[in-house]
Write a structure and sequence with these properties.
Layout (H helix, E strand, L loop, with lengths): L1 E5 L3 H10 L6 E6 L3 H11 L2 E3 L2 H8 L3 E4 L6 H10 L3 E5 L6 H13 L4 E4 L6 H12 L5 E9 L14 H4 L3 H17 L3 E9 L10 E8 L5 E6 L6 E8 L2 E6 L3 E5 L5 E2 L8 H15 L7 H20 L3 E2 L4
Parallel strand pairs: 1-2, 1-4, 2-3, 4-5, 5-6, 7-10
Antiparallel strand pairs: 7-11, 8-9, 8-15, 9-10, 11-12, 12-13, 13-14
Helix pairs in contact: 1-9, 4-5, 5-10, 6-8, 8-10
This protein binds nicotinamide-adenine-dinucleotide (NAD).
Amino acid sequence: MKLAVIGGGTIGVKHLEAARDVEGLEAVAVVEVNPERAAELSAEFGVRAYAHYEEMLAEAQPEITVVALPHFLHKEVAIRCAERGVHILLEKPMALNVEECDAIIEAAHRHGVKLMVGHTQHYHPDNLAAKRIIESGELGQLVMINDMRHVNYYRADRPGWFFEKAKAGGGIFTNLGAHSIDKIQWLTGSRVTKVKAFVSHYGDRGDIEGSGVLLAETSIGVPATISQSGYLGVSRNETEFIFTKGMLKLETGKGLQISRNGVYEKVAVEDLGKPLARQLKDLMAAIQDGAELDCSGEYSRTVISVLESVYRSSETGTEQAVRLV
Ligand SMILES: NC(=O)c1ccc[n+]([C@@H]2O[C@H](COP(=O)([O-])OP(=O)(O)OC[C@H]3O[C@@H](n4cnc5c(N)ncnc54)[C@H](O)[C@@H]3O)[C@@H](O)[C@H]2O)c1
């Protein structure tokens, strides 16, 4: 199958690298508005570079596109790919709002193409090991979940569009909170149903939030908190699951620990291969056998709906129900 990557930035290049590890998949094109970057990628990956996606879709005729663009371009480009009959791996967060998600889902259905959203959390081996333990019930009843992420969000090399609400949709919650919301929902087989959230703006760039706290209710009755801050602190990316007979500490990409008697012990985690390559393989399998995707448009829309509730709750100072339909 022929693959094109639209947007050759931080993650676009990783998708090009991942495609090298997928049998039966050949990267043929990259679309990138920055001409120097486009030339570099063309030389490194042996793909044809285009400045505009319409020209690429007409000429290169890929079967799959990866849409790795700033968030405000997701809807327009995903819909055009669907109209051209091209299957889509659309990077997270799916779009700026639920209405945009609906338009993308509708276009994919109408044109009979597969739509996968790049919720890469589903492919990290630490997360998959955590999911198995949660589902086994060996730690008893799940009581609560606390997710905490601190990063230097305002680092100098982060592209400027991430700091503009009109282009990014929001700040650290939209970009990184989307992973936390997805992780909680997917790992526990639940949906976030209600939120009370406070987001705050202490960053020195743009008009997006640089921090926030969310208290969530889930459809399985387990409460969760998500705390995010993007300033000059100590980096942390931890999700702690508290059960009646123990605890799990998940540090995605760094490991998983389990406690049954007051101390944490490392869980041996199987190396399953590169997450982005496995993500592409899943999309190809779904195209070939028509299987439903775990990270479908319908699922990914729920993450955007939670994000909308987060901002509504923070603005109004009230608890908000998540619109699930
Ligand atoms: N799944 C993950 O873990 C993960 C990690 C990083 C980023 N992302 C997501 O991937 C997407 C891209 O993020 P990024 O960090 O790569 O951003 P980026 O700014 O590094 O890359 C975007 C690229 O798109 C190019 N571009 C902009 N407008 C264009 C247009 N009209 N046509 C063609 N190219 C255009 C830019 O020049 C840039 O090179 C976002 O949705 C982001 O949230 C996901």
